[in-house]
Amino acid sequence: MDIVTPIEIECARSLRVGDQITLSGYIYTGRDAVLPRLVRMIKDKELDHRIIKLAGSVIFHTAVSQAGVGPTSSNKPEIEESLAVLSKAGVRLHLGKGKISDKTVKALQQYDSVYAVIPPVTALLQSRILSKQVIAFPEEGMEAIHLLKVSRFPAIIAAGQGVSIY
């Protein structure tokens, strides 16, 4: 299934574990260094929605370097603890790798969001990035939040509607 961002709630609700998807449009990046900061900004109502628009968005758990992008483990506490808050704030799809907890799977269901795993194929993913721009936390270097424009990013739905493939 080809999905273009921003993702409507109905689209997220229709995705099932095992669905193979491709993503096109804009996606955000973030991992252990910045996702807790983003969560704090949401909780403190300090998020500038003109810069970071979470409604219908996708967050890819990765850093962006000259070598390309590849998923990091989404079950790191700093990342996994952000999924519920970010989903409630409008993120519809989280991209990463690895098993997430049953508690997180249920939170995704509650907030009409899904989690997809992406194969760790850095060269393939790099070839599907059309543009990239640092939009927040530049002091974090490659772990800053980037806005990527992508074309046909491959992924597999790993958790949604209260079910996980793990």
**Average predicted local confidence, pLDDT:** 92
Instruction: Indicate the CATH topology.
Output: fumarase
Which descriptor suits the 3D outline?
globular
Instruction: Report the strand count.
Output: 8
Class by helix and strand content?
A: alpha/beta
Topology (elements, then pairings):
Elements: E1 2-4, H1 9-14, E2 20-29, H2 35-43, E3 58-60, H3 77-88, E4 93-96, H4 102-110, E5 114-117, H5 122-127, E6 129-136, E7 145-160, E8 163-164
Parallel strand pairs: 1-2, 2-3, 3-4, 4-5
Antiparallel strand pairs: 2-7, 5-7, 6-7, 7-8
Question: How would you characterize this protein structure?
Answer:
The chain is of the alpha/beta class. The chain has a single domain, classed as fumarase. Helices cover 25% and strands 30% of the residues. It contains five helices and eight strands. The chain has helices at residues 9-14, 35-43, 77-88, 102-110, 122-127; strands at residues 2-4, 20-29, 58-60, 93-96, 114-117, 129-136, 145-160, 163-164. Strands 2-3-4-5-7 form a five-stranded mixed β-barrel. Helix 2 (35-43) packs parallel to helix 3 (77-88) and helix 3 (77-88) packs parallel to helix 4 (102-110). It is globular. The model has no long low-confidence stretch (mean pLDDT 92).
